[in-house]
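Try this one yourself first.
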């Protein structure tokens, strides 16, 4: 399957300046800009970085741009309010861990890393107005979606700094075209207004045709928001912010409506593998085969291998593995993932204190329905027993998800 057909099958082409997707089948050089407003990327960034890696594996040359300069201004795309500006030292510090994550995600695939502070940091304001600003129409800029949204009746307004951001991004594309031979910019669809800035600038200044295309923005259907750094509950690529176990469990918990799309976006599964897996999943949805395969594949991409302790934690939660058989190191890992409470002897009190249920009455209802587990075994009693404690702990769980579990100490 050529790259254009693969991207179409995965649903990864949304907006584009070229008419025929087969334009992508002739490898050239492209660039992808990465925001440096945080010291880690999220799964929102991951989606478009994997798009970049797909292009590289199809023969394209990649230039990965760290926004050391543009992050000082703040991208208004997809934002309802003005960003809080970071200091130059904060941005410079953030660039390095982001570069490390990009290197890991490319898994040895060739690419070039650049930082736009190296050229924008030397640009003089009057030169910028004369060499760049004069090529942009205010009418066109005011019609950009993110500008009209912020300037509308219910909008929060937009500063001149954020309004000018798209000119900086256009300058980046022009600079990379002139100095690196870049002919394509890629990004997520919330960047489309900014991505359009470079194409006409290069056409006007250089009389050359370049292109841009965006992939659909990946949305958290439970919140309706993108998987961004400033969103609540962000899933980070840094294990210090989102542990391997939390990361993998996130993918296991996605819905049947989401899992097919996420497999196409976040893994390198082939169409034949996908069709076979989804057929098996439809036959046995209760086994969550698609979710488990998604989780395994994405975790391997981000962390280099499947989470080492994850399978044992899952076995513990389902009662396949006893607390008696856990070594101290693995028990310490589990205690990082699952809250620990001191036992009062009462199951109902533990469920409420551990935020597994909102009230005593709801706890009793769950007990009566068989939805409460001690060490993987369903119980309907109100009190803990001495035999429940293994290695000084017992595992109390509501349902089957690890996030609904707590460890109880004697």
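Now uncover the answer:
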């Amino acid at each position: 399957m050529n790259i254009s057909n693969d991207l179409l099958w995965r649903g990864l082409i949304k907006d584009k300046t070229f008419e025929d997707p087969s334009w992508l089948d002739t490898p050239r050089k492209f660039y992808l800009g990465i925001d440096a407003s945080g010291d880690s990327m999220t799964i929102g960034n991951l989606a478009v970085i994997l798009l970049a890696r797909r292009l590289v594996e199809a023969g394209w040359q990649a230039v990965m741009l760290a926004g050391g300069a543009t992050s000082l201004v703040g991208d208004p795309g997809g934002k309802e309010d003005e960003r809080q500006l970071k200091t130059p030292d904060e941005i410079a510090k953030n660039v390095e861990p982001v570069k490390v994550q990009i290197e890991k995600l490319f898994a040895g695939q060739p690419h070039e890393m650049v930082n736009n502070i190296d050229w924008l940091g030397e640009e003089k304001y009057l030169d910028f107005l004369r060499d760049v600003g004069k090529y942009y129409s205010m009418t066109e800029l005011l019609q950009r979606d993110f500008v009209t949204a912020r300037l509308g009746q219910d909008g929060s307004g937009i500063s001149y700094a954020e309004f000018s951001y798209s000119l900086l991004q256009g300058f980046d594309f022009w600079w990379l075209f002139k100095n690196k031979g870049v002919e394509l910019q890629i990004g997520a669809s919330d960047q489309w207004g900014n991505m359009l800035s470079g194409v006409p600038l290069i056409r006007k200044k250089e009389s050359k045709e370049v292109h841009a295309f965006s992939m659909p923005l990946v949305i958290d259907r439970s919140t309706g928001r993108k998987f961004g750094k400033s969103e609540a509950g962000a899933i980070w690529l840094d294990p210090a912010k989102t542990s391997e176990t939390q990361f993998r469990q996130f993918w296991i918990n996605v819905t049947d409506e989401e899992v097919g799309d996420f497999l196409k976006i976040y893994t390198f599964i082939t169409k034949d593998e996908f069709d076979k897996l989804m057929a098996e999943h439809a036959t046995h949805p209760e086994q969550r085969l698609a979710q488990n395969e998604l989780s395994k594949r994405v975790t391997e991409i981000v962390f280099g291998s499947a989470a080492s302790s994850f399978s044992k934690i899952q076995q513990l939660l389902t009662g396949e593995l006893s607390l008696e058989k856990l070594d101290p190191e693995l028990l310490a890992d589990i205690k990082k993932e699952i809250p620990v409470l001191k036992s009062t002897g009462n199951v109902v009190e533990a469920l409420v204190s551990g935020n597994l249920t909102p009230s005593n009455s709801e706890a009793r209802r769950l007990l009566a329905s068989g939805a409460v587990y001690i060490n993987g075994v369903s119980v309907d009693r109100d009190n803990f027993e001495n035999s429940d404690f293994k290695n000084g702990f017992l595992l109390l769980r509501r349902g089957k998800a690890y996030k609904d579990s707590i460890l109880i100490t004697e």
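Discussion: The chain has a mean pLDDT of 87. The longest helix spans residues 88-106.
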